[in-house]
Amino acid sequence: MKKNMKKLAVGFGVFVMAVGSLMGCSSLGSGGNEQGEILKELPEGFDKETVRKQAMEDIEIAQSKDYESWKSRFTKDLQSSLTEESYDSYLKILEKQGEFKEFGKCTYLGQIKDNKKYGGVIIVVKYEEGNVNYSLAYDEDMNLVSFTM
């Protein structure tokens, strides 16, 4: 169990770094729409149910062992930076979690950077061997800009 927690902590750290580098550094806040500010809610134009359903679908695609389908969910500019090796690493970690059970609780956040809006969700996924927190972020066209566990 300690190993799984360590992997989750590393995964969360990678998510924070990815969001920071992709969308710029900023302070956490709930008010205003300053460029790059991380919001404690989805920005205008994003719907919680739509984001939740898309996140569940993208996690299912990721679990399907179909690299090309998973890769196609990302923005075009990010697709070239994805590798089958990193996807295989994800699958190896996932195998250790056991059988998928159900999707759990969601937390939503957002960001506005350079007049572009991003919606994010942290969703708990329950597996046979424990829970995994997935962090997914989307552009306004609901293409993935971040996917971590």
From TrEMBL:
* InterPro entries associated with the record: DUF3887
Give the signal peptide as a residue range, or say none if absent: 1-23
One matching Pfam family, short form? DUF3887
What positions does the domain DUF3887 occupy?
Answer: 59-147
Q: Which Gene3D superfamilies match?
A: 3.10.450.590
Signal is among the record's keywords = yes
Which terms are listed as keywords in the entry?
A: Signal
Instruction: Report whether Signal shows up as a keyword of the record.
Output: yes
Q: What is this protein called?
A: DUF3887 domain-containing protein
Q: Identify the species of origin.
A: Mediterraneibacter gnavus (strain CC55_001C)
Q: What is the lineage of its organism?
A: Bacteria, Bacillati, Bacillota, Clostridia, Lachnospirales
